[in-house]
Amino acid sequence: MFTLKTPKGELVKVKGPNGEISMEIRWNPNFGPKMTETINEVQQFIDSEVLRLCDDLVPKDTGILKQSGIMQTQIGSGIVKYRTPYARRWYYMPAAFNDAPRRGNYWFERMKQNGGKRQILDGAKKLAGRK
């Protein structure tokens, strides 16, 4: 989980040609908690979307590899894990997969190339309050 901390206040002094200017910079006390909440919501969305959009691309025999992504990923951590003894092998090494070529190697990369990257970015921007 991410936490944004804002400074309490800062006194800034600037010397100019007509003398010294002093100012105090204060942060809105709600800025840190609000941004922390937004950032964590966006990260949860990204993690969930990666799993959802990769779902039909992950090699499937018994479904354990696909299910491991759901069970091993802590939504909001920013790390999606497919954890089985053969996950790395099936990600990188070509094989004859059921439902190929849709299901197969490099499922994350292929998901991004097939519009998933744009879909995730657009959704994240919307959640963050940007257009």
Give descriptors for this structure.
single chain, 131 residues, mainly alpha, 4 helices
From the alpha carbons, calculate the radius of gyration and give it in angstroms: 22 Å
Q: Order of strands in the sheet with the most strands?
A: 1-2
Q: State the major sheet.
A: 2 strands, antiparallel
Number of structurally distinct domains? 1
Count of alpha/pi helices: 4
Point out poorly predicted stretches: none
Describe this structure in words.
This protein is mainly α and 131 residues long. The protein has one domain. 47% of the residues lie in helices and 11% in strands. The chain has four helices and two strands, in the order E-E-H-H-H-H. It has a two-stranded antiparallel ribbon. Helix 1 packs antiparallel against helix 4 (107-128). The longest helix is centred in the first third of the chain and has 24 residues, at 31-54. 11% of the residues are buried.
